[in-house]
């Protein structure tokens, strides 16, 4: 009978994911909070987190939510539901409500695990439950605001305690490399996080929790996000628009420079929303490398003339340099520019670039390693270009830590460039680096690789290694 119960639960999860929708101000799913006098449970049909032995509340409903897909996209996942809710410390179960009655109860033992993501905020622990029908109540150890998800395919419940909120992106003071924290607190009635005096410039940005983009729950952590049997990656970031936040949504566009008060609010009824209040003008840009998100743009590049390909900054010995690998088309032109705007743009000769200079012809189809530099705080700019793109290196690769195994540029599609290689790897570690040089290398979490990130552990086998770049962040699959 257990298998029949599990089948029944799986069907109910899928049905609830199809039936439930997010609720706006005029679309309250609650008939009347709590139980009616006739013993009925007056909430909408669906899945709820509930204190063991008590009726569910509409503020603890879980609704269908997207998960991450390859190439920085979102995708539906059958039976994957999520909700943001305040949980008091105590014992909980999941209940399925249909026609105002509890028709199934799910539980199991909770355990604390590391989510495997690097976080500048220092939060890496999540609570998970391997659920089963009629399982015992599980424990929430600490009261707080949680993102709670349940995945019908794997039977896994994840409870992620949200402690910090921040913004990040090319429009923010820290660019895509460092979060701008929002400070505040929430409780069972709601709350907010705010930052005052934030300088936002033309560009893009997102909001995220605990300095993390997402939680990797793949069986093979380096495997494809598009293989449903390999698990999933849930989002801990919002995009879309500030007044219509979407999990993993597209970056918020920022068109007007200025000083802003940025606020993220949460209420149990309405969920999350953000507000921007412009409080002053942005300071005039003088040379500060953190004020320059240098990039390339042009119809010879993946983003055309509409979308930049960001370069990454380092300073050594007073020389400021921006590094990147760019895949070019066999026809077209390109330029360097700063901050997704045209007031600072460089063209002409690579050995002596000028602001507003001529477009630069494509060097021909293929990947090139580019370094843009200034040694005199922006008075003069030069660039170099090498006919070597990305490679992998490490004691697990054929060349060890001495010789790169080159990745072949696969061109670009929909603004995403890809590089790949099929290679036999041994037990050990690998990293990605550009131009056969350590000045520009990436590692860490393969889903959101970071500059100078940690080595990536692999086991022996034949692998397809694919590196992808959407103009802002790198991700990889090592299958």
Describe the protein:
It is built from one helix and 44 strands. Helix content is 4%, strand content 52%. Strands 1, 2, 5, 6, 7, 8, 9, 10, 11, 12 and 13 form an eleven-stranded antiparallel sheet that branches. Strands 14, 15, 16, 17, 20, 21, 22, 23 and 24 form a nine-stranded antiparallel sheet that branches. With 479 residues, the protein is mainly beta. It folds into three domains: 2-161, Immunoglobulin-like (Sandwich); 289-386, Immunoglobulin-like; 390-478, Sandwich (Immunoglobulin-like), CATH 2.60.40.3620. It starts with a helix and ends with a strand. Residues 1-37 have low confidence and may be disordered.
Rounded to an integer in angstroms, the radius of gyration calculated over CA atoms is: 25 Å
Beta-strand level of the residues, as a percent range? Answer: over 45%
| Shape label | globular
SS field, number of helical segments:
1
- Counting structural domains, the number is 3
Structural class: mainly beta
User: What is the strand tally?
Assistant: 44
**Which percent range fits the helix content?**
under 10%
How far apart the termini lie comes to: 37 Å
What CATH calls the topology of the largest domain is Immunoglobulin-like
CATH class identity of the largest domain: Mainly Beta
The biggest beta sheet reads:
11 strands, antiparallel
> Can you tell me the residue ranges where pLDDT is under 50 for at least 5 consecutive residues?
1-37
Judging by the overall fold, what is the CATH architecture of the largest domain? Sandwich
Mean pLDDT: 87
